[in-house]
Each structure stands twice: as C-alpha cells, then as structure tokens.
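Hey,

Quick one before I head out. I ran the complex with magnesium ion overnight. Inputs first:
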Amino acid sequence: MARLSDPITLLKGIGPARAKQFANLNIVTLEDLICHFPRGYEDRTRLVPIEKLQADVPACFRGMVMNTPRTAHIRKGLDLTKVTVADATGRLNLTFFNSPYAAQQLHYGEEYIFYGAVTGDFIGYQMTNPVFEPVGSPGVTTRRILPIYPLTAGLTNAAVLRAVNQALALCDPPEEILPEALRQRYAILPAEQAYRAIHQPQSMEEADQARKRMVFEEFFVFSAGLALMRAARAEKRVPPYPQVDMAPFYAALPFSLTGAQNRAIGEILADFRAGRPMNRLIQGDVGSGKTMVAAAAAYAAACSGFQTALMAPTEILAEQHAASLGRLFDPLGIRVGLLTGSMTPREKREIREQLEAGDIQVAVGTHALLTDATRFARLGLVIADEQHRFGVAQRSRLGAKGEDPHVLVMSATPIPRTLALLLYGDLEVSILDELPPGREPVETFLVGESYRPRINAFIRKQVSAGSQCFIVCPAVEENQELGVKAASAWAETLQKTVFPDLRIVLLHGQMKAGEKEAAMASFARGEADVMVATTVIEVGVDVPNATLMVVEDADRFGLSQLHQLRGRVGRGKQKSYCILTTHNRNPDTLQRLKALCKTTDGFRIAEEDLKLRGPGDFFGARQSGLPAFRVGDLSGDLQTLKDAQQASMEWIEAWGQSDAPEAAALRRRIGALFLRWEGTMN
Ligand code: ADP
Ligand code: MG
C-alpha cells in the first residue's frame, strides 16, 4: 500500500522525464494524480453494427478482418496499411498511417473491437486510424467509458490513464470529509466511490454523479472555510468604542445623508460598540455615497482614539479620497495623510513617521499602506474601497496589522446573492439601496457609427454649456486588426481633426503614476473639456461637472463594467448622458447593450451579465479575489453551489465543534486551501 503523499515516481513507467511532464500539470504526488480529474468522457460502451455507423460520429463496432493487411510504402515517412473488416451488416475499409502495430496485430479471420469515426467520400465510407483490441481482451481503449484528461506536451491520455489506474490500485483515495447525513440529504456519493468513479465510471450517469460530488466538495470546503473564518472572528474580543457624538460630523457635511447611509452608519457604530472586530461590507451602487459612510466610520474611530487606514485600488482614487476627506476633516481637527507607491522615499518616510507617532488619524493610500514598513500608533479601522480587488486572503491577513482592527469593505459591484456568499461569506453586509436626492438617472443611448457627426456635435454642445465629457476606449494602443479605438490614437485624432479648439487630456493605465495623477487632477479642476481614457477611470473617480460619457466599441466591455463606467457621470446636479457606440451588428450583442439603456439598476444588470457571460468575465478574471475552482464552474454548477453553501451552514451548526474523523479531515482540507490561496494572492 502506498500513501497519497508519495511521489508518482513510485509508479511503473514514471521515471524522471515522465515525472517532469506530470509536474507541468502540477502533479507530483499520488494525491495530485488522483485529483487530476478528466475534463470529459468518451462513451465507448455501446457496439454499433457497421451498417449503422454515422459519418464523423466516433463509435465502437465489432468486425472480422477479411484479408491480410497490406502495407504500401508511399514515400519517405509515409506507410499506409489497408485492411477490410466486416460484420453481419456490412464491410468497411480501414486505413492506418505509419502503423506497424496495426500491420502486425490485425490477423486475417480474427475479430476485434474497433473505435473510430467513419468518413464518407464518393467511394463510400471508410475509417482512418481506429483504435482496436482483440475481442477476448479486457477493454482498455474500447468497450468502456474513456476518461479524457487535461494533458501537456509529451504526455498522452493513455499515459495519464495508466498512471491514474495504478495509483488507484496502490492507495486509498482522499478521505471522506462530508458527514453521511449531509451526503444523503444532498444525494452525494461517498468519497471512496466518487474518486474511483470519476476515473473509472461504469456508466455516464456514474461519471456525472462523481463529478457532481467533486464540485459539491470543492464549493463546500470553500464555503465552510469562510463560515469558520467568520465564526473565529466572532469569538474575538476588542475593547468596545465609547458612545461617540456624531453631531459635529453631520454638521460639517454639505448635505444631509440618505436613509440608507444613516442605516449603514448606525450598523457600523453598533459594531464598534459590540466589542468584537467588525467585518462588514458596504454594498452600494455607484454614486450611492459610500465614501461618506466610510468617513463617518473613520470619524467615530478617531473620536475613540483610533487610527483608520483607507485603501483604494488606484493612486488616483487614493488621492481623491485624501483630498475630499482632508477638506471634511480639517475643520474637525482630524489629520489626513496620503501614502502611495509613487511618492518619493522621503515623503513616504515622513508620512510613516507621523503615522507611527499617531499624529495622523486617517491614512489614505493604496496597498502600500499594508506593507510591513508602515506602522500605526493605534490602528483601529481598515477600510478597503472598491473591494473586488481585495480578496478574502488579503482580508484574512489584516488581523496581523494592529490588534484585530475593524474591517470595512466597500463595493460598487452589485453581486447576485449566491456569488456574494462566495466572495463575502465571511462578512456582514450593509446595503446602500438609495441614491442621494435630486439624481436623475443617466440617460443612455446605443448608436452605430453613422451617428458620429451627431455624437461630436453633442460633445461640443455639452462643453459649450460648461460641462465636461469622458470618452472611454477599450485599449491603449491602436489595434488595427480588431478596429478597436485605442485611447491615445483616438485622442490625437479628435484633437487634430474634430476638436482643435477643445482641451483634451489622455488617461490610461500605461502612463506613469505622476502623469495619470496630473491628468486626472487637471480634469477634475476643470482645466480640460474632454478626457479620453481607458477603463482606469472605472473605479470611483468623482468629477461632478462631467455630464457626458461616450463609450467607444461598447460591445468590448461587460455590462457590469459599462454600468460602473457610466457611474462616472450623473454625479452632479445636471442631467447626464451616456452614449454607447458599436460597430457590432450581432443581435445578441445589441440586445445585451440595450439592456443597459433600459435600466440603471446595478443588481439587475449584474444578474443579466452573469446569465450572459458567466462569472469569470463578470468579476474580471484576476481581480475577483476568488480562488480558481478546479472542478466547479460558477455558471454551470450554480445549483450545486447553492446546495454546497446550504450544506456548509448546516455543517457549522451540527458539526462545527465535532471531532469525528470527517470533521477533522475537513478542517485540514480548509487549512490547505487557505494556505494555497495565500500563495496565489501574494
Ligand atoms: P460611491 O458610492 O460611488 O463611492 P461617492 O461616495 O463617491 O459614491 O458619492 C458620490 C457623490 O455623491 C459624491 O460627490 C458625494 O459627495 C455625493 N454624496 C454622497 N452622499 C450624498 C448625500 N447624502 N447627498 C448628496 N450628495 C451626496
Ligand atoms: Mg466610491
């Protein structure tokens, strides 16, 4: 008997060279191998009479060899072996390319099982390079369901299959982590059976069942992990903040807060007084006023003698927050400091010294804020803005800074509930479902290229009225092939040919931080009329005087992303517009974009987006903070995801404290998963 942790070199036929190929698939141990699941199956169980074979549909049939195979040497490197086979229903000519094996193994008068697809031409059907086995042999490549594995250069499916089968014969598959009661309730196969069946299914149904178990298990481990994290946090104790007088803060605001903002602030203040570290998500559509909620939290922390670290995903946003919070807090005697990666070492050192001395109460910055070089005198609150780039792993690491600071994350990405549980399963949620009064929805249009003169005229009209415009392009450099408008080229064209008299600035992610900052700042100050940008402006930037956004090649963006972009206008008192342009004539694409013209409800748009494009696109692959699931597919396996989430809650209730072997095994699995994540997140 071997152990799961043993190296695969233990297996017959796997030497150092083979091992290297397997390593390319991240397979080092027997466990890795057993957890290398097929990506699909070929059903080779059914035998089809020759007469019933269909062109291009691979199938198995039983046939007798009707002549001695003849091999012809066509030219150097090309030998053709031809043979005719027959059953009671018909005859079929087979051709093998360069196959001495076929030439030697197929014998006149004997019967074999073949697997392949017939192709038709004017002479009739024939088959090229079928696989075959003698009728009496145990089926390895025929008469079975053949798993098809993800492969890498040099490694064949057969080699993986052989290795997996050996491994399964040598050791027990990974241990059970699901209590029997849960397995029964959710109709889940036991681990032992599932691990064997996923590689060696007796039927396609069994293969489906096995895969379902693996998907369930994967989601279950993840959800249970989040639930455990949440439970562990709930056990922690921190000194409760005293009752804070918020009146001076409210008096300093230029407007009164919305009901939703007040509710969220109330929830935060209650968390502060509860004596447990807060872990809360503020979810609110663009423009719902999340920043003020964050400011209220920072104010309460400062009045209680604690510092706040507010992290933004981009420098531009960090600067904007620092500026607006500075204006708000200055008169209240609370000092705000900015710390970003592009500051000079000396500037950074100064800010860090003041943070360590406790002279600054609110630090605003990018991820630089959380590096070890930054020390706080008394960090009490960490706020992450636009949190979709700030995943569970980063959150779990926060506890290390200060003494279990309160954590507040803010997201403008409305996320359907099931996915929200995956992303934020460890968080309490406050929802800002109300926009500040007087906001008119941004009027949105979808137009084709023929509208170009009218678009340009509209831009000019807005500018003449004293407003500003965003023009968003999908890429930085011109990409001829795709005909996608690149920001820099388009800015130049507009300046030269259409708007020589307007002040145009350019903003894209490849500019240096200082340049970006200067461009954004000048636009925000009203020193430019038009900003041509890539999606770097997507997140959070606030220019209330901007009333028009033109999105070029809008079909290149996801709906949620477009919704976020659109949120950059309509932030002031004036009526705002969003024009989506596209060359695309695909009815589905146009319909998708039209959905955006009809509604400004971020949640509905998100649901639509999820339905249409799946969650990968929805979150933006690398930003999500979600681990890549190995088996589960967030769009196709949504029901299993829901079941697994439900089951994980039941598990915490009934087995959270249990020391049964499955419970211990699950805890180990969760630990390993979170460790793996830490690795991928850094
Ligand atoms: P987001 O939720 O997208 O981060 P912001 O916090 O940036 O939204 O707020 C958007 C704009 O609305 C800002 O200009 C902000 O000053 C303003 N704002 C926030 N709350 C209110 C309110 N209660 N009444 C009026 N304006 C508000
Ligand atoms: Mg914001």
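The two ends are 38 Å apart (CA to CA).

Talk tomorrow,
K.
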